[in-house]
């Protein structure tokens, strides 16, 4: 079971120490940027995170390029950010890098789809060259997402499943898992809602139908390396975090995993 750094009240090495304190096994990191915290590739930061991970036993699972939502994945400004993102992920030795397609990166037209597929195509090739898997987080339909996978055409490309974003967009996560199970990244975001920002409902009490999604992952035998809590804990309410960790563990003990044993 893991935490998403960008939904915590602390960042960097403090996020790893918080994960250890609440009993989480791993952390997904954010690359940072204006309004999002210190850049991950700031001199000395990678070394500090690797040392803290070794000290705490908390795994570094992935790096997210959330800043791309601010600049636009298909903009000119995106390429250097993507290259830095991949370099930082390789230096941290994480297995996964993912880029979201929301706000300025939204895939909201045929032209945006084509441009996104093109960018993800070269980024997936660059990720593979670094021994990484690149994933897209989006709210495409199952058919559209499958087409995106076909267009990117890389064995190093996957789709990140979020358990609420598709629901908010009018989609069914259960149906997406059935359609796309073979293409899903082995790290899944767990959150419930609404709202998207603020005191999100405890897992299992919102409108996300999380039990249905988890059951679909189990039925389709989707390999799950890590379930990552992405409810909003930035208010510092550790009790909610602990309750969500307990809820998730109780419902995911029989998951298929990519490494054997229980999921992280």
Overall description:
This protein has helices at 13-22, 45-56, 68-71, 78-92, 110-129, 142-152, 165-168, 173-180, 210-219, 238-251, and strands spanning 2-4, 26-30, 59-64, 96-100, 133-137, 157-159, 187-190, 226-229. It is of the alpha/beta class and 264 residues long. The chain has an eight-stranded parallel β-sheet with strand order 6-5-4-3-2-1-8-7, with helices on one face. Helix 9 (210-219) links the parallel strand 7 and strand 8. Helix 1 packs parallel to helix 2 and helix 4 packs parallel to helix 5 (110-129).
Supply database-style keywords.
264 residues; alpha/beta; 8-stranded parallel β-sheet; 41% helix; 13% strand; globular
- Going by helix content, strand content and strand pairing, the class is alpha/beta
Strand order of the largest sheet: 6-5-4-3-2-1-8-7
Summarize the helix and strand pattern as letters.
EHEHEHHEHEHEHHEHEH
The N- and C-terminal alpha carbons lie at a distance of 4 Å
Which residue ranges are poorly predicted, with pLDDT under 50 across at least 5 consecutive positions? 259-263
Count of alpha/pi helices: 10
| Total DSSP E strands | 8
**Helicity, as a percent range:** 40-55%
Biggest sheet architecture: 8 strands, parallel
Radius of gyration: 17 Å
Instruction: Give the amount of beta strand, in percent.
Output: 5-15%
Average pLDDT figure? 95
Give the overall shape, derived from the CA principal axes.
globular
């Amino acid at each position: 079971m893991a935490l998403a750094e960008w939904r915590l009240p602390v960042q960097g090495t403090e996020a790893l120490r918080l994960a250890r304190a609440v009993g989480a096994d791993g952390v997904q990191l954010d690359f940072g940027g204006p309004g999002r915290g210190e850049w991950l590739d700031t001199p000395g930061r990678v070394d500090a995170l690797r040392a803290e991970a070794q000290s705490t036993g908390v795994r570094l699972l992935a790096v997210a390029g959330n800043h791309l939502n601010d600049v636009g994945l298909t903009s000119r400004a995106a390429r250097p950010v993507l290259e830095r993102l991949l370099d930082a992920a390789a230096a941290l030795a994480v297995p996964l890098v993912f880029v979201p397609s929301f706000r300025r990166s939204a895939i909201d037209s045929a032209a945006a789809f084509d441009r996104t597929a093109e960018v993800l195509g070269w980024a997936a090739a660059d990720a593979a060259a670094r021994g990484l898997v690149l994933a897209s987080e989006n709210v495409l339909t199952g058919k559209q997402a499958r087409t995106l996978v076909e267009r990117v055409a890389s064995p190093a490309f996957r789709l990140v499943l979020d358990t609420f974003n598709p629901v908010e967009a009018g989609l069914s996560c259960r149906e997406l898992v059935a359609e796309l199970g073979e293409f899903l990244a082995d790290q899944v975001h767990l959150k419930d809602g609404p709202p998207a920002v603020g005191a999100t409902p405890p897992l299992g009490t919102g409108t996300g139908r999380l039990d249905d999604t988890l059951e679909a992952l189990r039925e389709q035998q989707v390999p799950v390396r890590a379930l990552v809590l992405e409810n909003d804990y930035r208010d510092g309410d550790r009790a909610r975090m602990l309750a969500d960790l307990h809820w998730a563990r109780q419902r995911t003990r029989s998951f298929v995993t990519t490494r054997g044993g229980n999921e992280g």
